[in-house]
Design brief:
There is one protein chain. The protein is α+β, with helices and mostly antiparallel strands. 29% of the residues lie in helices and 25% in strands. Strands 12-13-17-16 form a 4-stranded mixed β-sheet. Strands 1-11-10 form a 3-stranded mixed β-sheet. It has a two-stranded antiparallel ribbon with strand order 2-9.
């Protein structure tokens, strides 16, 4: 079968820069690498094809010959010499150490897994800050074997298959590459007599109590990192980190939007008409709010500095109170009579219009129908 164009293989234009060639190969190699697709012959073939294309297009001399003469220009140019160290050199050039990408045996740069813990807080705790104890379940170093995985009094031995490297070299057709040692699974050591407490894992699941200092002003989704409190790594490897993510519970009175708080304040239509002083709640206690006469429903009153602080900036937000005028319910006959008398004075009494919004609305409606019928 005829070979595909190398630029087509990597999904590139002919004027692609060398960095673009490298990025394209990295993407395809990560996708089709045999370690990620065991037993998949099609993926292995795609991986070989991409590697061959990269070897040519990443070399200025070979690329020039290919651009001028196509595949025929590469005859005798040493293409396909992946045996020995050539392919590993290509892969190392793009990815660094192969073991770091596909789970090989270099243990120096690895560490235990990071963990996430969801911490639910009341709004008051989030606004004021608090110190909270949590008890996450983590994989911790086994105390019996001190993380070695071997029965006390014994110790792990060097893996005979990889010689402690954690990787073995295997041949796949004309490729020669390294992969994780199947016997020690990259650890470089084997355990003949496992620890009875952790069964050779070197780690056991355990709940530990941690104290988390929550700063004032945290919000939903904010995270606190507890360094070294994640999962323990294999023997000799440092633990990961624990990320505590904040989740703020719904509050019965206040809603939060960043640094501002909102609340609804119900008032009677008498208070709305005549005005007066109200007591409204804040997270710092009660405060007096003066409602002016002729206040309409949904009017917002701002109480400065009564909102929430922020962990990212100084100052404090505001509390916005939205007044809602309530219609009275379950009226007595006498109350209904009084309201009817009151309504009559609004409709026919002196003093001008008492319904500014209603009057303007009806005027707009009248003009609308006049235009339709005119």
């Amino acid at each position: 079968m005829a070979k595909r164009d190398y630029y087509e293989v990597l999904g590139l234009e002919k004027n692609a820069a060398s960095d673009d060639v490298k990025k394209a190969y990295r993407r395809l190699a990560m996708k089709h690498h045999p370690d990620r697709n065991p037993g998949n012959a099609e993926a292995e073939e795609s991986f070989k094809e991409a590697s061959e294309a990269y070897e040519v297009l990443s070399d200025d001399e070979k690329r020039s010959a290919y651009d001028r003469f196509g595949h025929a220009g590469l005859e005798g140019a040493g293409l396909g010499g992946f045996n020995g160290g050539t392919f590993s050199d290509i892969f190392s050039d793009v990815f660094g150490d192969i073991g770091d990408i596909f789970g090989g045996g270099r243990r120096g740069g690895r560490r235990g897994a990071d963990l996430r813990y969801n911490l639910s807080l009341d709004l008051e705790q989030a606004v004021r800050g608090d110190t909270v104890e949590i008890r996450p379940a983590v994989l911790a170093t086994c105390d019996v074997c001190d993380g070695s995985g071997a029965r006390p009094g014994t110790s792990p031995s060097t893996c005979p298959d990889c010689g402690g490297a954690g990787q073995v070299r295997v041949s796949q057709g004309f490729f020669s590459l390294r992969q994780t040692c199947p016997r020690c699974r990259g650890a470089g050591q084997v355990i003949a007599d496992p620890c009875p407490a952790c069964h050779g894992a070197g780690r056991v699941e355990r709940r530990k109590t941690l104290s988390v200092k929550v700063p004032a002003g945290v919000d939903d989704g904010d995270r606190i990192r507890l360094t070294g409190e994640g999962e323990a790594g294999p023997a000799g490897v440092p633990p990961g980190d624990l990320y505590v993510e904040m989740s703020i519970r719904e509050h019965p009175i206040f809603q939060r939007d960043g640094m501002n708080l909102f609340c609804e304040v119900p008032i009677s239509f008498v208070q709305a008409a005549l005005g007066g002083d109200l007591e409204v709640p804040t997270l710092d206690g009660r405060v007096r709010l003066t409602v002016p006469a002729e206040t309409q429903t949904n009017r917002l009153f701002r109480l400065r500095g009564k909102g929430a602080p922020s962990v990212r900036r100084s100052g404090r937000g505001d509390l916005l109170c939205r007044v809602v005028v309530e219609t009275p319910v379950r009226l007595t006959d006498r109350q209904k009579e009084l309201l009817e008398e009151f309504g009559a004075t609004l409709d026919h009494g002196e003093g001008g219009h008492h319904h500014p919004k209603g009057t303007s609305w009806f005027e707009s409606v009248r003009h609308f129908f006049d235009r339709l019928t005119g």
